[in-house]
Design a protein that fits this description.
Number of helices: 11
Structural class: alpha/beta
Strand content: 15-25%
């Protein structure tokens, strides 16, 4: 049975309820350290991030309420335990990612559905408070808004999610064509988390007709996801998705397979949690003299180049290469290996929503025309900030956050790019 806390819009109950294709490989490294740890802090200083000229993004998918319970250790079957902390906060992949995008300075619009209940109202209020345009939400007079129970294991630093979908689900008839066209007007990117696939496909087809870029968050195989992927320009995957979707033996091989099966994709990123991320970017202008290399060997070469003594995120990139995946084919492009920020154990609180924060930062990076060498460390930095607070949104940084200052000055970026030898 659900309970509702008489606090607005969400509340924390303290512990114990008392208190594009370059010819050379580069490494891009952050120098800024995290100096703000309190939740939802805004400073009075100017933004550390540029304001993109085309900053309108649209997201379609899940927006929900998260009930987070922190426990000393994950419970065994039929065991009774007590939480050490409890928090009720907004959740859902698209709701989280667009909240992140709004705090970074974009102008997000969300299309989703909730019921006219306490939770649905709180979902809308929190998104609006963060600057997300909720005017395209569908609110059902009856039914149930989506919610998720999240068990955060403070010992293993893991989270387990138990999701209950909203009812009734959103269907294409819920969104009028006039409302859809209004939502897409002026948009730079449209983002989908793969949920409510029938409605998602209608939106994606209209976006494609209008030449608006499409980003798909491929968390896991879902019904209708293949149709969305065929329209995608960018894909951000969970660690397990590429191999599950392609049936290949390794993630780099799977990324080559994805680019061959989805010829419209410009880049695909596989996030690896604390191990960073891998990105394969397609290069359209293939030089006949471009060297051909096995993609797995290329990935091994990039991993050898990382510096484990650097705590902040870095990016190592290959030269333009014709990547070969045995038995699958070749793709001309660049391969990138991005490291994750090394968060001290004492600062790592909760990984809930880290992938959504990464996606929100990628949305910003696309709108701000960041290079991949800049985008991947930026997204990792934003995701790491999120992990320092309980819940998917509390730790999301604002554009005024000093941790993001490094990305505001092109001269600083240039000074931290060093050339390295080509892969062998």
């Amino acid at each position: 049975m659900l309970f509702y806390l008489p606090m607005h819009p969400y509340a924390t109950i303290p512990n114990s309820f008392s208190s594009s294709c370059l010819p050379l490989r580069h490494r891009f490294s952050l120098s800024a350290r995290a100096i703000m740890t309190d939740e939802r802090i805004k400073t009075s200083s100017d933004s550390f991030l540029p304001h993109p000229e085309s900053g309108i993004v649209v997201g379609f998918g899940g927006a929900a309420v998260d009930f987070l319970a922190v426990v000393g250790a994950f419970p065994k079957p039929d065991q009774k335990i007590r939480s050490t902390n409890l928090k009720v906060e907004g959740g859902g992949n698209v709701g989280n990612a667009l909240t992140c995008a709004a705090r970074l300075g974009l102008k997000p619009r969300i299309i989703s559905k909730v019921a006219n209940d306490t939770q649905g109202k709180a979902v809308l209020e929190e998104l609006e408070a963060d600057g997300v345009d909720t005017s395209f939400f569908v609110v059902s007079k009856e039914g149930r808004s989506p919610f998720t129970y999240v068990i955060v294991d403070s010992q293993t630093k893991t989270r387990t999610c138990i999701h209950t979908a909203g009812y009734p689900p959103m269907i294409p008839e819920d969104l009028s064509r006039a409302s859809l066209l209004s939502a897409l007007d002026g948009a730079r990117v449209v983002y989908f988390d793969g949920r409510m696939h029938e409605t998602a496909l209608v939106i994606a087809q209209e976006a494609a007709n209008k030449k608006i870029s499409i980003l798909i968050d491929a968390e896991r195989p879902r019904e209708g996801l293949d149709d969305l992927l065929r329209l995608a320009d960018y894909v951000v995957c969970s660690e397990k998705f590429p191999q599950a979707w392609t049936g290949t033996s390794s993630i780099p091989t799977a990324l080559v397979s994805m680019l061959l099966r989805l010829p419209q994709i410009r880049f695909v990123i596989a996030t690896l949690g604390k191990n960073g991320c891998i990105m394969l970017e397609r290069c359209a202008n293939e030089d006949p003299q471009t060297e051909e290399m096995d993609v797995d060997r290329s990935m091994e070469s990039l991993e050898i180049g990382k510096n484990d003594s650097i705590a902040t995120p870095t990016c190592i990139a290959s030269p333009v290469t014709k990547f070969r995946a045995e038995g699958i084919g070749t793709v001309c492009g660049r391969l990138y290996f991005g490291t994750a920020e090394k968060i001290p154990s004492s600062e790592l609180i909760d990984t809930t929503g880290a992938g959504d924060a990464f996606v929100g930062a990628v949305l910003y990076a696309i709108c701000a025309n960041f290079s991949p060498e800049k985008m991947l460390p930026f997204a990792s930095c934003v995701a790491a900030a999120k992990c320092r607070a309980l819940g998917a949104r509390s730790g999301l940084p604002y554009q005024t956050d000093p941790r993001l200052a490094f990305f505001s000055n092109p001269a600083m970026v240039s000074s931290n790019v060093t050339k390295e030898t080509n892969m062998t």
